[in-house]
Design goal:
Elements lengths: L1 E8 L1 H5 L3 H10 L3 E8 L3 H7 L9 H8 L4 E9 L1 H9 L12 H5 L8 E3 L3 H11 L8
Antiparallel strand pairs: 1-3, 1-4, 2-3
The structure holds adenosine-3',5'-cyclic-monophosphate.
Protein name: Nucleoside diphosphate kinase
Cofactor: Mg(2+)
Function: Major role in the synthesis of nucleoside triphosphates other than ATP. The ATP gamma phosphate is transferred to the NDP beta phosphate via a ping-pong mechanism, using a phosphorylated active-site intermediate.
Length: about 140
């Protein structure tokens, strides 16, 4: 089915000027960037976005990292976009990511792993709504 997923190009990617290189991988995989903006997110936004991880030992570090530099938030559209983008990103830990994936090519570590992508249709909806209004998404 035609789906939308939510993507973040994380601070380690913007700091190293890799947003174009990552977008090229996304587009080559057949995903369309139907909304995109570069923003500095607030601590409150980061805490809300990652609320499911709030009991994890790395939560504070994760929030601090996500507000340490600009991010690029995106909506990606395509056939099976949610699963496809997860495949294109590669495993959370870049050491375990397959060749050619964004994380294998660019990520620094499990924390500074360059990209986020929604893990389910329900989460995609919630995450997109946290950063975009419907009129900002142009397919
Ligand atoms: P993401 O897909 O954005 O969702 C949760 C994030 O938590 C994940 O990517 C990682 O960047 C981060 N994360 C997961 N495990 C660890 C860890 N052990 N230490 C630091 N960050 C982590």
């Amino acid at each position: 089915a035609l789906e939308r997923t939510f993507s973040i190009l994380k601070p380690d990617a913007t700091e190293r000027n890799l947003t174009g290189a990552i977008n090229a991988i996304i587009e080559k995989a057949g995903l369309r960037i139907v909304a995109q903006k570069r923003v500095l997110i607030t601590k409150e936004q980061a805490q809300r976005f990652y609320a499911v991880h709030k009991e994890r030992p790395f939560f504070g570090e994760l929030v601090d990292f996500m507000i340490s530099a600009p991010v690029v938030v995106q909506v990606l559209e395509g056939e099976n976009a949610i699963a496809k983008y997860r495949e294109v990103m590669g495993a959370t830990d870049p050491a375990k990511a397959a060749a050619g994936t964004i994380r294998k090519e660019h990520a620094r570590s499990i924390g500074e792993n360059s990209v986020h992508g929604s893990d389910s249709p329900d989460n995609a909806k919630v995450e997109i709504a946290q950063f975009f209004s419907e009129n900002e998404i142009v397919g």
